[in-house]
Amino acid sequence: xxxxxxxxxxxxxFLARFKKGAVASFEATRLATGYMNQNGIEVHGDKGALRFRxxxxxxxxxxxxxxxxxxxxxxxIMCTDGSAHPYVANWWPAAHILGYEHxxxxxxxxxxxxxxxxxxxxxxxxFADAYETQRVLEAALLSAEQRCAVKMSDVx
Length: 156
Prior knowledge:
Blueprint: E1 11-17, E2 23-29, E3 40-44, E4 48-53, E5 59-64, E6 74-78, H1 100-115, H2 127-146
Antiparallel strand pairs: 1-2, 3-4, 4-5, 5-6
């Protein structure tokens, strides 16, 4: 396969500190070698951690750090049991793999519920959420330009 020249700056990393002191790192790129669609999220705390990988979307990994050291380790949770997880009861029997398209169909169903005045399975984002997301991205850009931390209260 012939590789072309990359003519876009398609990588970002920024750090954030939350009101109560938690810190976060956000990374995004389409150029990470070895990954095809590795959208993911990891949350680490002093008592445990969660991680989700889009390339393996039927599972959620959980770590209970309060467990005894001899049994402490990542637990893989199969998220396709309709009796325990939202949306899944509308699909296949337990442990049948769900794919990329199912998320969009679930989202469309929630939008239709909201338009009909019904409550969606999970809260839907709105324009206020989008605005706040843009504020965070603007703060990251300003921080990079100014080479210093930027408070969200300074970003309108």
